[in-house]
Amino acid sequence: MKKTAKIISIVLLLSFAFVLVANSYAVVDGKTIRTVISFKKLAPREVVEKAKIPISANDIVLGTDKTPCRVIRVVRAISIQLSINGKPILLNTTKRRVGNILKDAGIKLGPKDLVKPSLTSTVENGDKITVQTYRTVVKTVKIVIPYKTIYQENDKLAKNRAIKFRKGINGVLEKKFLVSYLGSKKVGQKEISERVITPSVSAVYMIGKAQFNYHYIKKLRVVATAYSPRVIETDGNPWRTATGMRSGFGVVAVDPKVIPLGTLMYVQGYGYAVAGDTGSLIKGDKIDVFFYSTQDAYNWGRRTVTVYILPGKWNFPKELSY
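Structure (tokenized):
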């Protein structure tokens, strides 16, 4: 009897010592709870390993190495399909609340961004979170300003004749818009500025109204060609003549031996003019009439016309300002 009591005492003593010395841990893995007993203190992950619970690199174990936790919790990572402005991203996360998931992923949201489901919603494995960011973009649009066409009467140009005085040039208008997008969808547009980069230049046509009164000194039959202000058709400066005057409509190149420089004249089909220039190819009974447009010069071509020499003479200034 004494021997049995002694054995019982020893067993109780050992049991009490075991309870004092052993460390007991409860490992919670979802709905599964496992108990781990160890004579030495274990880190949380060591407890999980001793419980033979497999964990992935993305799973987390709640607990610290310095302060042993009697309850160890395994939080499983889930896969979330994240779409940002239509761009798909696969996320592995241990968070369940949408706001926390996005914060962990480093996604900063603006006040006008749209998130589905809401930031306070919870998600499960395989769920989808859609983010549409609100952004504004400045877009620049260049618009053509069509040139206008102006017709001006000219009392030196032969009646019913029309020639181009100046080529029309389209202008450019720049407009800037503030365009708003939610995701990839355009949700608004506002004009923020407008400026003319290049103004348009009107095309000008001369419409002749000159009628020759046939008060002349003499008349000549000459071969008339035409030129325009192009370097290829002139001797260097297309706007400067042999007399120093500026080229322009009504300035005709002549052979001074036939028609003296400064002579006032009326050229059939052309209009009133002055002998104000010379040319290496203008010899004898030839003249070369001026047009602003190369096309008008081509249209004139080469023709035989009557030149009426008028009374008076053009006085050339000594110096001209251009």
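Helices lie at 2-21, 44-50, 98-104, 294-300. The chain has four domains: 16-75, 78-132, 137-204, 212-313.
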